[in-house]
Amino acid sequence: MRSRSLRRPETLVPLASVTIMIVAFAMIPAYTDAAIAPFDVYNTFQIFARLGLLALALGLTMIAGEFDLSVVGTYALGGMLAVQAGQEHWVYGLLAAVAAGGVIGLVQGGVIAGLKLPSMPVTLATYITLLGLTSALSGGLTKTYSNPSVTLWVDQTVLTFFSPRSLLTLGLFLLAAVVLAVTRWGRELRAIGGDRRASQVAGVRVGRLIVGTFMLSGMLSALGGSLLSFSLGSANPDPGVQPLIVAAAAALLGGLSLAGGRGNALGLLGGIMAVALLAEIVTVAALPGYVTQLFFAGLLGVIVVIDAPDLHRALLRQRTRLRPERNPASMPITTRELS
Amino acid sequence: MNNLLSAPARPEAPATERAGRRSRTEIIIVVVVVLAVLAAIVAGLSTPRFATVANAKAIITSASLVGIAALGLTLITIGGSAVSLAISPSVAAVGMIFLSAQSLGLAPALVLAIAGGTLITGLQGAVIGYAAANPVLLTIATSFAIAGLATGISGGETVSPTGTGYDRLNATPGGVALSVYALVGLTLILEWLLRRTAFGRTLYLIGENRRAAWTAGLPVGRTTTVAWLAAGALFAVTAAFTAAFNTSANVNLGGTLTFDAIAAVLAGGTPISGGRGSALRTLAGAVLIAAVSDILLLRGYSTGVQIMVKGLIVLIVVILVHLHAKGRNA
């Protein structure tokens, strides 16, 4: 039982990627002049905290068989709201950001579930709208957060390796892992990602579940953006597409599938840690910025190609064709049965 | 032969039976569209300096660069590969090639640029066409790869033109920018390709149902690759015009072009799921967005508000197109 569950992609992919990255990380002294300091581990967790909630938000919608492109828009808006509404007290900023994320998710989920629209164009339109809204709120400028004690608090070192920000992100991941594994909501989420019609027939309230997932996704991205703004002491109206790319790579390395229905929060955690370790390795080895871009591009490209359905079919066809076959006419049928 | 080449006639639906069922959605859609058009006319006429010839030229000129790239994206979307998120970096890379090849003369530089753009985008199309890789994620990855390579090769520097031939692309024959003629001409060619050629009809079928097209023995991989190759050529044309206009090119030359082009395609009413849409619709979408941005600009709204309204237009059109398609299928 145990060995079988290890071979499943949602366990195998994150386990393999984390292991490779940890080995590469531990071997840093072998190929650079730098030694590993506890600060490097701390920094890896800081990178994790920067992306973790965004990847979790995207990952939850991916498990449900959707793809929420708007997470980066909500991330930017959340960060901006946290700074602008939180000048007096950080709680107001956090509440404003999370509430806005919830409302955005409610509207998007409502449109997607209510009208049975594909999530890509809707969340793309929301993404553009949110970037515009964030830019309009800030006048297109980076806003500074004039409460340095909050900035110092979220990034202070705890237990050598962590900060309150990375511990909070880790905590939310563990919570998500328990909820996804144990509760009915978690099982139903995977069910609607796997086969929506069948789960509808089986009595899952698909519409409600999708709205809830998008609300959660919006709140998590907004929270991630707020924490980042608090940490940086400023909010940037346009984070660019890089966070989305990295979050998508992390989700795929975490064993999630674009087709939906597959994955769990612990695998996702592994995927993000792999990405964070890679980013830290590039930093420690002092490689130029574009090399990081090429690394991530290669990583994501390889996963996307491996995940491509027709590639499997073509390989299978090739393998079938290599076998000695007396009657070539029967080949297509064999292929179809195999796939 | 003529019959074979013409567009398949649409069987007339029994109108009376269907009208009742779809009427409510259809009425809502018509009302919304009429109201939106009225609102746009009122907003336009009440905005000072909107209804002038000079402003009309400004709108169509600003629509032309996005429009040409959006035409390329239209091919991708109709063929069922959703969108490319790598338009901006491709345009930036091709713009750099175009300007650094100016010493060879305008025509060789254009050929080089178009060849480069076709290759960059066509390779992605081959992976999507033959392996059915997810186009959104693949192009996210390639956008990183192209931007990274362009930065690495150029050393992060801005490329300056090595000759002056490029300036002929900034000509304004008859008082209208050359890019506008290019947009109109390319729209007509593309519309003909989509409606009247075997390639176009196959592309629609693949977009409608990839699996069925594959089962029917249609060349899914090849047709998708050709669509992406053509899209790459169109991105390259945009790149040449943009680079010539800016007289320099760096990694940020593409700017927000990726999302502008997607907005133009979707605002024109081409559904992202594929199988429907046309070049003319994309032209209309590009002009619509340029006109609305122009109204907002003349009324003194910030860039942020312009982007926000663009997103809302896309959202509303996506919903209306979806409701319309559902009403038709019901």
In DSSP terms (H or I, runs of 4 or more residues), the helix count of chain B works out at 13
Which structural class do the helices and strands of chain B define?
A: mainly alpha
Give the percentage of residues in beta strands of chain B.
under 5%
Shape of chain B: globular
By secondary-structure content and strand pairing, the structural class of chain A works out as mainly alpha
Number of helices of chain A: 17
Mean pLDDT of chain B: 88
Give the end-to-end Cα distance of chain B, rounded to a whole number of Å.
35 Å
Main pleated sheet of chain B: none
Please outline the major beta sheet of chain A. Answer: 2 strands, antiparallel
Structure description:
The complex is a heterodimer of chains A (339) and B (330). Chain A is mainly α and 339 residues long. Helices cover 76% and strands 1% of the residues of chain A. Chain A has 17 helices and 2 strands. Chain A has a two-stranded antiparallel ribbon. In chain A, helix 2 packs parallel to helix 14 (265-284) and helix 6 (90-115) packs antiparallel against helix 12. The longest helix of chain A is centred in the middle third of the chain and has 27 residues, at 206-232. Chain A starts with a helix and ends with a helix. Mean pLDDT of chain A is 86; it is low at 328-339. Chain B is an all-alpha fold. Chain B is built from 13 helices and no strands. Chain B has helices at residues 2-5, 15-46, 53-78, 87-100, 106-131, 135-154, 178-196, 198-208, 210-215, 220-246, 257-267, 279-298, 303-329.
